[in-house]
């Protein structure tokens, strides 16, 4: 626990040392985060971070969507004769373990360079109604997020 807190503290401190003039020249952090970001990598110990693809969209009005999916998940053979509702529970388990999705609202704390999402809906509903906060760092068109447990995700601005 102490090492996780130390890693988080070091990450936050490192992000705080980014020169303020760089941020000022490019606009407020919130303005810089608005847009769609494509996942490059993540180190979360979950099936959806195995060979992942995904995106994070942050709109100017404060809404967000976040979707990550492992490439190579099993494909269903759905047809008009076999609708989605008839797919087996084992199949649903396999696809759900390889995916995470949520939406809600977001805000930024400019002073400590953190992004907070308020989860309104999610593939796994346990998080609904809660907030999640990550430290953020921007370098050009690359966004790095660091969670409280030290997990990281790296995104590139979609063109």
CATH architectural type: Beta Barrel
CATH class: Mainly Beta
Helical residues, percent: 10-25%
Q: What are the low-pLDDT stretches, counting only 5+ consecutive residues below 50?
A: 1-25
Summarize the structure in short.
The protein is of the alpha+beta class and 159 residues long. It has helices at 2-16, 20-26, 29-33, 89-97, and strands at residues 35-42, 52-58, 63-70, 99-109, 114-122, 131-139, 142-146, 152-157.
Features:
single chain; 159 residues; alpha+beta; Lipocalin; 8-stranded antiparallel beta barrel; 4 helices; 8 strands; 40% strand; elongated
List the helices and strands and how they pair.
Layout: H1 2-16, H2 20-26, H3 29-33, E1 35-42, E2 52-58, E3 63-70, H4 89-97, E4 99-109, E5 114-122, E6 131-139, E7 142-146, E8 152-157
Antiparallel strand pairs: 1-2, 1-8, 2-3, 3-4, 4-5, 5-6, 6-7, 7-8
């Amino acid at each position: 626990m102490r090492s996780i807190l130390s890693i988080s503290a070091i990450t936050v401190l490192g992000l705080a040392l980014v020169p303020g003039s760089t941020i000022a020249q490019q606009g407020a952090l919130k303005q810089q985060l608005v847009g769609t970001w494509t996942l490059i990598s993540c180190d979360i110990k979950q099936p959806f971070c195995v060979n992942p693809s995904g995106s994070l969209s942050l709109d100017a009005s404060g809404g967000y969507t976040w979707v990550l999916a492992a490439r190579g998940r099993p494909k269903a053979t759905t047809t008009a004769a076999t609708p989605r509702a008839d797919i087996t529970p084992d199949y649903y388990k396999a696809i759900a373990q390889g995916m995470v999705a949520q939406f809600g609202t977001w805000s930024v704390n400019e002073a400590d360079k953190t992004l907070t999402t308020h989860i309104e809906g999610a593939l796994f509903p346990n998080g609904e109604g809660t907030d999640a906060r990550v430290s953020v760092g921007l370098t050009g068109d690359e966004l790095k997020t660091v969670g409280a447990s030290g997990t990281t995700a790296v995104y590139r601005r979609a063109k």
